[in-house]
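Technical appendix A lists one of the benchmark inputs used to test multi-chain prediction within the project. The record comprises two sequence entries:
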Amino acid sequence: MLRHVCFLLLLLSLPALAVIETYEFSEPSLEKRYRSLSEELRCPKCQNQNIADSNAPISQDLRRLLYEQLEAGATDDEIRQYMVDRYGEFVRYRPSFSGVTVMLWVTPIVLLILGIAIAVMTLRGRKQTAGANEALSEAEQSKLRALMDKAESDK
Amino acid sequence: MPARLKLFFPLILFIVLAIFLVRGLSLDPKELPSALIDKPFPEFSLPALGSAQTLDKAAVSGQVALFNVWATWCVSCRVEHPYLTELAKQGVAIYGINYKDEDTAALGWLDELGDPYIASIADRDGTLGLDLGVYGAPETYLVDAQGLVRYRHVGVVNERVWSNTLQPIYEQLQSGKAN
């Protein structure tokens, strides 16, 4: 009995309704740009999602806006600028290079150079100490010989 | 000596990291400065809620005022509503932006809870909200007499927010106008 009820209930469940709407584009190239821009623009409400992934109402609005602007013939830069004018640099996952974002862009390069420099210095230092161990000074040579002779005679 | 200094390198690195992390604890990532600070309030032409009148920027400019973005679907708006009513009683000029809402529901809300707004702009499609950079209700914008946006508060306006943040700017702008 229970089994049948469960089965009937299963039939009642609807497939999850798709929250992300689709747009019909007049040209395939527009759809491509829509996809890349909606992945590059960040949802202002949800901190860590782009507007393509987010189903927040604001992202829906921004996607519709993006669609309308693309169909109206706006360039990528115009659209980005439009969003930044309203929501600030925050909406861009690929921020522009400016005084505020200079740290973001420069720090990884600086860290990489620093890392390479440290690695090179360490390796060079290791080689030098290794080289120093190879050759014994005159005094050390004679000391070693004396020790070995002693060991030989102790036998 | 340099070899000794090298020993301190991890400690220095740790301290620098710790400073950044401690600083990060007290930063609120949700606090986004509005892109419109010190920029003119956007132009618009939208109906006034509950009347046949059309409002534009000129109709709501000319004094230091708060622009409160609200909607009946917004739970926090209900929380802040009584405090806005109190502020309005104290003589603070408040305009409402009824954001992506239905007029009948909005009018019912004002009937039931009181109307602190000089007028409410019926932004049914969220076009003004978009130009303002609204990303959720409630938001409150402080606009000066010249029509420049001076501050944006995201979230509920309560007594603490008002006396700590909004009121000082509000009074400063008002005295600036008097001079």
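The helical segments of chain B are 2-7, 9-25, 57-60, 75-89, 103-113, 127-132, 159-178. The CA atoms of residues 153 and 165 of chain B lie 9 Å apart. Comparable benchmark entries are summarised in Table A2.
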